[in-house]
Amino acid sequence: MIHRRQELPPTAGLPLRWRDLQPGAPTLADDIAALLGTPPLQLECSGTASLLVALTTLREQQPLRRRVVVPAYTCPLVAIAVHQAGLELQLCDLRAGHFDMDPVALRVACDERTLAIIPTHLAGRVADVDDALDVARRVGAYVIEDAAQALGARRDGVSVGMAGDIGFFSLAAGKGLSIYEGGLLLARDPVLRAHLAETSARIVPRRIGWEWRRSIELLGYAALYRPRGLGLAYGGPLRRALHRGDPVAAVGDDFALSIPLHRVGRWRQGVGAHAAPRLPTFLKQTRDQAQRRLSRLRRIDGLELFDDRAGTQGTWPFLLLLLPDQARRDRALDQLWQSGFGVSRLFIHALPDYAYLADRVPQQDVPHARDFAARSLSISNSPWLTDEDFEVICRSLEIALN
Ligand SMILES: *Cc1c(COP(=O)(O)O)cnc(C)c1O
User: Distance between CA atoms of 170 and 125, rounded to whole angstroms?
Assistant: First the structure.
């Protein structure tokens, strides 16, 4: 097994600087809205909390509709939020070999009971929102764009989250710009935006204990989110979880079943506002790096890669790859997952296969989502991952594919 001397993170988070930690104006949401060119954004304490506020709002608009349709391969937190909003999860299988929902399966999944459809911009790639909008219009449902992994992604020059009724971004650790935990809600329509703000004012309390905890976690993140600290903060726990045979814990898919709701304090907003002006340059730097590395990966036979579709410009937290089969994917991971080179898996399972979510997720047959979970791996697009590091990864992939 290969080993890198200093640990790389699995995704490209925007590194914080010590100066960011000084008190500043709590203008984070407005600053990001200005950068993205969107209407005002609403700050919540996590991406999941943003989704919970959105679902609670829509449920009040359409009390007779209870179903929320999501891709069967997505973040477990989405299933937890749907349950906490008192709604029913309905899975939609993926297109074969892709992260988008299958158009035929989506039409079967949706009817007059559907409240919302959640297309998901996975790995920063811009998802097929048009198809979800087409189905949603026919059955009278809303579309919520899950852009948790895609802050800064655009289609035809417009931010993701603007095509659907609602969109949300995550500011969690490792997801681009981070205040350790945070989320931003976006809605094109001012009336819906006002409803989202009312819901938040009603259901989200100020909780000093939670804000203290997140502030200390943000300090820890600022200190350890660098190659010298990540062995302690990320690599060690990863290797221990894999050693006890718990891949779900290894990638942090083992979420708490109750989502905390609280206001984000001034200090953390100020930290994010200090870092925000660096985001556009960071996105460009990681985009250029990703394009160079995709060209290298295209020279390896047997890999399926995800690039931007025409008219879209996504973000690049990591490169998402499909290998020809699970055996070869696992062979590559045997070499790379614990190596410190930033190679990992996205979500371990399709949603029905997380034992701890059994009472929140319907047992549906979703073969394409299971296949995606079995054949995919991710390569960090952190700027700390050098061209030499990347070449080590490529050679390891070539051996695994042989
Ligand atoms: C991380 C993530 C979420 C949840 O965002 P948090 O800020 O971590 O609560 C939702 N959907 C997807 C696809 C994610 O990756």
Answer: 15
Element housing 343 (H / E)? strand 343-344
How many whole angstroms from 170 Cα to the centroid of ligand 1?
6
Give domain limits for the chain: 22-203
Residue with the nearest Cα to atom 13 of ligand 1? 75
Q: Using a 6 Å CB cutoff, which residues line ligand 1? A: 46-48, 74-75, 77-78, 120, 146, 148-149, 170, 172, 183
Number of the ligand 1 atom closest to the C-alpha atom of 183? 7
232: DSSP letter: I
Give distance in angstroms: CA of 148 to centre of ligand 1.
5
Planar angle of CA 273, 155, 102, nearest 5 degrees:
115
Mean residue pLDDT of the chain comes to 97
Q: What does DSSP assign to residue 184? A: E
Count CA atoms within 13 Å of residue 152 on its CB side. Answer: 25
Confirm or reject CATH 3.40.640.10 for domain 22-203, answering yes or no.
yes
Q: What is the pLDDT of residues 192-238, one digit of tens each?
A: 999 999 999 999 999 999 999 999 999 999 999 999 999 888 999 99
Q: What is the mean pLDDT of residues 153-173?
A: 98
Residues 336 and 1 sit within 8 Å (Cβ to Cβ): no
- Summarised one tens digit per residue, pLDDT across range 313-324 is 999 999 999 999
For residue 114, the surrounding DSSP H or E stretch is strand 114-117
Q: Whose CA is nearest to atom 7 of ligand 1?
A: 47
Spacing, Cα 125 to ligand 1 middle (Å): 15
**How many Cβ atoms are within 10 Å of 234's Cβ, its own excluded?**
22
Alpha-carbon gap, residue 400 to 332, rounded angstroms: 5
Which pLDDT band, with edges at 50, 70 and 90, does 174 fall under? confident
